[in-house]
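Entry, Tuesday afternoon. Goal for today is a structural model of the target with zinc ion bound, before we commit to ordering more compound. Inputs were pasted exactly as handed over by J.K., no edits. I checked the ligand SMILES twice against the vendor sheet because last time a stereocentre got dropped in transcription.
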Amino acid sequence: MANSSLAYIIRLALALSLVLAACDAEAYIGPGSGISFLQGLWVALVGVMWSIVAIIRLPFKLLIRAFGGKKAALVLVGLGFLVWFINEYKPQADADTASGGRTIVLGFDGMDPQLARRWMNEGLMPNFTRLAEGGGFQTLATTNPAQSPVAWSSFATGTGPGEHGIFDFLRRSTDSYVPDFSISEVKPTKYTVDLFGLRIPTDGGEIINRRIGEPFWMTAEKMGLNAVVLRVPVTYPPDPVHHMLSGMGVPDLLGSQGTYSIFTTEHLDKTDNRRIQRVIPDQKGLIETTLTGPDDPLAEGKPLVQPFLIEPAPRGVLVSINGKRFELKQGQWSDWVGVNFDILGPLHTSGMVRFLLLQNYPVLKLYVSPIHIDPYDPAVPISSPPEYAAELADKIGLYHTIGMPEETWSLNENQISDEAYLEVIRTTLAEREAMWYTALEAHDAALAVAVFVQTDRVSHMFYRGLDKEHPLYRQTGEKARGAVQWIYQEADRVLGETLKRMDQEDRLIVLSDHGFAPFRKAVHLNRWLAQAGYLVFKPGEQGTDALFGGVDWAQTKAYALGLNGIFINQQGREPKGSVSVPETKALKAKIVEQLVNVTDPETGDSLVRQVFDRSDIYPGLANAEAPDLVIGYEKNYRASWQTTLGGTPQKLLEDNYQKWSGDHCIDPSLVPGVLFTSFPLSHEVDNIRDIPELILNLLETRAGG
Ligand SMILES: [Zn+2]
């Protein structure tokens, strides 16, 4: 016993001293990188105290050296008074605005010009109508491809994908054919030391926003203006502006983009979903289980867990977790519940989840949301300055923090109901509104930017209720059929509330990153490449649902990955490249020629409207990650989910029986976005990438006037 306690203390002291020696106590490290969790409160406190002592000691030492003891003390007192005086009488930080008004930018992801016009004409969007009449309304061309991370990056930087480097949600890893998340990257710790059975990281790892270029809010700050930027996609990790809360790109505590868990008493035949777990109740129905957290940074391959209990209750279930106990009715979401993953001694990492009782006993099904970063104890940086996330929570309560919290995937896999999904939408919308109105009412920034993504998420999941030709239209209930119109009316209400909080001199820009189209049939593009002889399988192999299973790379000339890309299997670039650089041009031309002639055997419609060559749309580009060809699908078609992940199912086309029923990852000319302004524009704005110029002009006029 004494021996094991001693060993424990030695291990703990060793771990802490190594961490303290190696890490900047204020540095954050990404989840999944294996070390973030070492910044337990205690570690941070000791580190900060240590730095403070060092900082205080340094000038004192220098003074003593320069003046000797007594004089140094007098100089110190004098300096102390000076610091107090400056603090007391310094001019207050320039608020928004004494002159010229603010520039306010409000984004509604995926707002479609045709749908907006339709509901404006029907009198359902009176605030948009008023804005259009008083200022301007036009369609706004989107990026190629028409994907949110790509378009919002162009919005931020004023450049195209060739320059900002975001080409798709997914990218090809340069050293393999495995798809990877394209928006942010966690570079894991490089060095670890194995001691006393522990795996101790000795450097910090790194989180990188893969978007290149200067966003306009940084330019504004350089002009001496304060910017507040809320939940704009591709802002993770946050930029160092006056106030920022990161949006799409923020991971969950596992380092993924949103991994949920389900606990069920049902027998599971076979599932590749490791997060669906069978649990066995005792005679009284009591279930003891654990929620799996991130990997233990001190022990390779072992996850951290949070134990919890489920038991029957009169009207549902009782859940006991981390010192909390609450009752849930069927179909009901819980409030936020803190979860805590102990690592060693005071070292821990924490997050927060919401529970949803999908099905009550006897066949229990309990859903647990992805583990969100806690704004009060963030394991990774989600705001600028870091304490802003907690300040917001003080004002508006706890809120969803991961980049894409809308549970679209759980709905697409039919794990949750339409109603449970819409409840999440209502919650996230209310959170974003509260943040936005708080920021506008603070009047401390000349530039205020927020993006509401709920318009996009509802359109993706409920287009089946708008599109009478959609395979799921008949099965879609009355309420679900009205969901897209409802979210547009909600957007109108948010606009109205924004207008109420504006001053006479403020100027407003409202925009979307792209529009929407039906998604009726999924195209297995790798199957087409295989049929045309460009993608070749090893003898006896037919293709798998993901990750290019069975592909004979030596024979393969081209492959599809991501939502819009085809890559040539190029020598010297791909790990097992088979096509020489000089052959590439002719090969691309041949694929383009064939692909635009492919038709749907059922309807005779073309699947592809245009195929773009990267040398035409991304001129001068040396980025190996850009697809060689970008596919502009026709309306109603889109790359299948399997295609995005390098899968090759048997058929070329498949009816889309999934709830993800609307999309925009098609020919960009078919899905432009919207632009509304509260002031008349001297000329039309060509493209979303021209928005920063418009904004900076407004800010310069203000700074000059
Ligand atoms: Zn979308």
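The mean pLDDT is 86.
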